[in-house]
Design a protein that fits this description.
Length: about 280
Amino acid sequence: MCLTNSLRAEVLIKALPYIQKYNNKIVVVKYGGNAMINEELKKAVMGDVVLLSLIGIKVVLVHGGGPEITDTLNKMNKKSVFVDGLRVTDKETADVVQMVLAGKINKNLVGLIQNTGGKAIGLSGIDGHMIKAKMLDEKLGYVGEITEINTQPILDILDKGYIPVISSVGYDSEDNVYNINADTAASGIAAALKAESLISMTDICGILRDKDDDSTLIHRINVSEVPQLMRSGIISGGMIPKVECCIEAVRRGVKRVFIIDGRVPHSIIIEMLTDEGIGTMFT
């Protein structure tokens, strides 16, 4: 569709109240799913992040990278084992997680943001003693449970006008490296920053009353409604830990938490700067 100049102006005017609401506020985006694999979607996400930054919103991008970790381990002839959706992480796997997340993926995203016209600095949870962790469960190995988040490195970078790009890797005082679930890391960072919003990108359009019918999307959920939605099976399987991270963020002071469909180009902009929105909001 070709937009006339008047239509473009109307779109911008309708977005103005949202731009004003979020101006100078912190928004944490958990970046994952298909939007990390599909090149066109990746460019759309980075464009959204740069646009939000340029209009005065302080965006913090938190990412994982499970598929790339698996691919690297496969090349090393090392089998990936999962328990309850979490990757069993021995010392060698922890080294690979650090290499892939804090190295390849993180720096590629920084480069893409900068090539899109933004300014970004890549960090891992190890940098600046940002994400301190301990072993979640011995049977999982070096899968981390967050014990402390130091927000100062993030705030310093935001204050200088850069977009922090953070990989979900943690550390402890004995120099161990921990693989941390990206949803958990994003939730913890958003809460520690007292962010205005946390946006979690997934490969579904949100919470559905009928998992096979996108028209049954639940647009808004109060955290008090979640236990009943779990008991009824509406929230189930791999969505449970994602929703639990959303609840934790809301309870710890994040004003709005969204699960949105990362398969839709510019889904972040649609959710943040339009009346309709695109996903499920937790309040």
